[in-house]
Amino acid sequence: MQKLASIKLAAIIFLSLLMAGCTGNSTVQEIVSPELTLSAEGPLYAGANSATATWEFDLAEILGNSQIKVSEAKITSVEVIVLPSENLPAMEKMVFEVTSKNTPMTRVGLFEGAITAGQTIALTIAAEQENLASAFADGKMTFVGDFDLIDEEYLGNVEFTLKVKFEAWIN
What we know:
Blueprint: H1 2-23, E1 27-32, E2 36-40, E3 44-56, H2 59-63, E4 70-82, E5 91-100, E6 103-115, E7 120-122, E8 124-125, H3 133-138, E9 140-154, E10 158-170
Antiparallel strand pairs: 1-10, 2-10, 3-9, 4-7, 4-10, 5-6, 5-9, 6-8
């Protein structure tokens, strides 16, 4: 009986150590992009149009240590503002995606409603997302905002300011 109790105790200790080893020393950190310009170059036509912005960064500089790596990351918020321009067309709805060299195009946010110049729109962020750790390892991300143009045609460019917040697990 005592031998069986010893085996159970040893198994419990082993499983505890195994679980502790799996959790690692990860900490969660918020990472915020600088204000970027999301641009769509005209001519633009009725229906879906794409605006893009690229963020290049030094991860060691952001995290303050070159030995730290991002093991998991996701977007927690996206704020977009249409920059006022002469004769800006009527727009609505935006689907927001992110990609990088080693990260496939991933849909992360949606805004449904009218897009008005000068007004901040906060996108609804997908509850489940692809892990964006590889995008941080790449040191460069491309953001894509697909928006609908209501008018038939607009010859000018449309620009938005963009700020993206991430939650990153680092170790």
